[in-house]
Specification:
Order of helices and strands: HHHEHEHEEEH
CATH architecture of the largest domain: 3-Layer(aba) Sandwich
Strand order of the largest sheet: 1-3-2-4-5
Number of domains: 2
Structural class: alpha/beta
Largest sheet: 5 strands, mixed
Radius of gyration: 36 Å
Distance between the termini: 102 Å
Number of helices: 6
Shape: rod-shaped
CATH topology of the largest domain: Glutaredoxin
Helix content: 40-55%
Oligomer: single chain
Number of strands: 5
């Protein structure tokens, strides 16, 4: 008999258009009494599921945003001295890449000699960019005019021609001897 009374109360509560918090709790107690602790008839907690999905989506978006930001930053040669080593390149004109610690040392002073002044490094990237056939020979001829403090090297940076000196950098998309000379002479 008690079961019939509980079922009637459950039906009455379920037929109501709106339940108060107290009525919802009472309905849960009645269902729990009638069916035991099997969560019979309990609906999914949509709010909890949506909250978890939103949190996971937010975390994924933040990670994707950080990854995109890091990968979209251009790869450029150094213009500061932090982390340099006391080592000179084998030549002023290299057909290989110059390591960053050596580049930083050359920016500080050419050939390790303070009397020669600060170094200037001209780098080209013909691996990622389409270079004219005579680009390297033009750059070589120009660098040979400044044998004391200018270096030429291949690079893998984000730019076809990149000029660097201490705290200054310029990126060129094509050979421009006037701009390169002005940069070398610090004009």
């Amino acid at each position: 008999m008690e079961t019939e009374t509980i079922q009637k109360q459950i039906e009455d509560l379920k037929n109501k258009p709106r339940l108060t918090r107290k009525e919802r709790r009472y309905l849960q107690k009645l269902e729990s009494k009638l069916y035991g602790n099997k969560n019979h008839g309990q609906t999914l907690n949509i709010k909890s599921i949506l909250t978890k999905i939103s949190a996971i989506t937010l975390v994924v978006l933040v990670i994707a945003g950080i990854t995109w930001f890091i990968s979209s930053r251009p790869n450029l040669p150094p213009i500061d001295l932090a982390g340099h080593i006391e080592q000179n390149p084998s030549s002023h004109i290299l057909d290989t890449e110059m390591t960053e610690p050596v580049q930083k040392h050359m920016l500080e002073h050419a050939d390790g000699d303070d009397k020669k002044g600060q170094g200037v490094i001209v780098q080209y990237n013909c691996k990622k960019y389409s270079c004219e056939r005579d680009l390297i020979s033009k750059l070589t001829a120009l660098v040979k005019k400044y044998p004391k403090n200018v270096y030429l090297a291949s690079g893998n940076y984000s730019g076809k021609i990149i000029l660097t000196r201490l705290n200054k950098r310029e990126i060129l998309e094509k050979f421009n001897d006037k701009k390169i000379i002005a940069f070398i002479e610090n004009r």
